[in-house]
UniProtKB/TrEMBL annotation:
Cellular-component GO terms for this entry: cytoplasmic vesicle
Record-given protein name: Cation transporter
Subcellular location: Cytoplasmic vesicle, Secretory vesicle, Synaptic vesicle membrane; Early endosome membrane
Keywords attached to this entry: Cytoplasmic vesicle, Endosome, Membrane, Synapse, Transmembrane, Transmembrane helix, Zinc
Domain Cation efflux protein transmembrane: 28-202
Keyword hit for Transmembrane helix: yes
Assigned protein family: Belongs to the TMEM163 family.
PANTHER family reported in the protein's UniProt record: TRANSMEMBRANE PROTEIN 163
Length: 209
């Protein structure tokens, strides 16, 4: 692997810092989302929190990849790590989708309702605002470094923004209108993003085999 230029080193350092911030935010999102979901009995918020946990794994792998690339590690080592991460994350996301479908379906049949969660609404608003900024930054740095993985990770943040918007909508309907079914229906909409993300990640890991 050819050594990076001074400019590329600077851009790589910036990319690693962005990923550190992004992963730290996902950790915060996981804690608040899961805690809020458990407190409110909201499958929507629980799924959102668990998806953030998987984003932490994905982000940590990308940080490792960028650091290895920055130090001139062989491309084969980097590719192997990305493949393992993609397979694990993709598989777990698909299992999470099945879990959400099962619980949401049960809640709809039994008319189980979630309570309002102001912390859940707050974390969803923050994510809707922050994710597009992270996407723009990662795409910019990814294009400068010719790093498809960094650009792809930025696009994952857009998916997170859509997911956060779904969470926000479901939480607001539960709070403002007291619609007992809003949490479960919004969770089923969330499954579309979770399953799509999982399938893409799984296929990426298999294609690299």
């Amino acid at each position: 692997m050819q050594p990076l230029s001074i400019t590329e080193k600077h851009d790589m350092t910036a990319a690693i810092r962005v990923e550190y911030f992004s992963t730290a935010w996902m950790a915060f999102e996981f804690i608040i989302g899961l805690w809020s979901g458990l407190q409110a009995g909201s499958i929507l918020l629980i799924a959102f929190g668990l998806d953030s946990l998987l984003e932490i794994i994905s982000g940590a792998t990308l940080i490792w990849r960028l650091k290895k690339e920055n130090s001139g590690a062989p491309a084969a080592v980097v590719a192997a790590a990305e493949r393992r991460s993609s397979l694990v994350v993709g598989s777990v996301l698909l299992l999470l989708s099945l879990y959400v479908v099962g619980v949401s379906g049960f809640n709809l049949v039994t008319h189980a309702a979630a309570e309002s969660s102001f912390s859940g609404i707050g974390i969803a608003i923050a994510s809707v605002l922050l994710m597009p900024i992270l996407t723009s930054k990662k795409r910019h740095l990814g294009q400068k470094l010719a790093s498809a993985a960094l650009v792809e990770d930025g696009m994952c943040n857009i998916t997170c923004a859509y997911m956060a918007a779904t969470v926000l909508l479901g939480s607001l309907l539960t709070w403002l209108l007291n619609w007992w079914w809003a949490d479960s229906v919004a969770a089923l909409i969330l499954v579309y993003f979770v399953a799509s993300e999982g399938w893409e990640s799984l296929q990426t890991g298999l294609d690299r085999d």
